[in-house]
Amino acid sequence: MKINFISYGYKHYEGEGLAPPAHDFLFSLRDIANPFWVDELKEFCGIEKPIIDFFKVNDSVQERLEKIQDLVLSFVRDFCANKNRKDEDSLTFAFRCTGGRHRSVYFAEQVCDFVSAFDFERDMEFETEHVDLGRHYTDEQILKIMQKLEPEQKVETV
């Protein structure tokens, strides 16, 4: 079974009258603190240390994160425990912010890391995809960001 976590930006889809990336559940994060408006953080993305640190010290962000993590874990456990599910079935959780660069990326990564740390009744595959990072960075810039990450932090972008 495969559990997908995707991040994307509202302004690139719904804001333009377009359908968002396919998902089963959606968490909108447009109401939480946005590092885009902090000059020294604007150019980073949600998988980089300055953004992670920004969110880790924000109690309301951490409270929201914990609630979402618990809810997603519950859904994944139920999905996995359903004997009618096939091994090729999948479930996709989407995280949406305005541009798909800071908040949604951070939450998708954090929730995936949290849920994937648990044992389940079936073999599970977990994947994170950051749909809109390519809109903000060149392929070369994304490679540099990825090279700075710890091996367990490697993520997929399109």
Number of domains: 1
Structural class: alpha/beta
* Shape field: globular
The main pleated sheet reads as: 5 strands, parallel
Mean pLDDT: 91
First and last CA, distance: 22 Å
Q: What's the structural blueprint in terms of helices and strands?
A:
Elements: E1 2-9, E2 25-28, H1 49-56, H2 59-81, E3 90-97, H3 103-116, E4 125-130, H4 133-136, H5 139-148, E5 156-157
Parallel strand pairs: 1-3, 1-4, 2-3, 4-5
Helix pairs in contact: 2-3
How would you sum up this structure in a few lines?
The chain contains five helices and five strands; from the N terminus they run ββααβαβααβ.
What does this protein structure show overall?
With 158 residues, the chain is α/β, with parallel strands linked by helices. The chain has one domain (2-157). It contains 5 helices and 5 strands. It has helices spanning 49-56, 59-81, 103-116, 133-136, 139-148, and strands at residues 2-9, 25-28, 90-97, 125-130, 156-157. Strands 2-3-1-4-5 form a 5-stranded parallel β-sheet, with helices on one face. Helix 2 (59-81) packs across helix 3 (103-116). The longest helix is centred in the middle third of the chain and has 23 residues, at 59-81. The two termini are 22 Å apart. Residues 151-155 have low confidence and may be disordered.
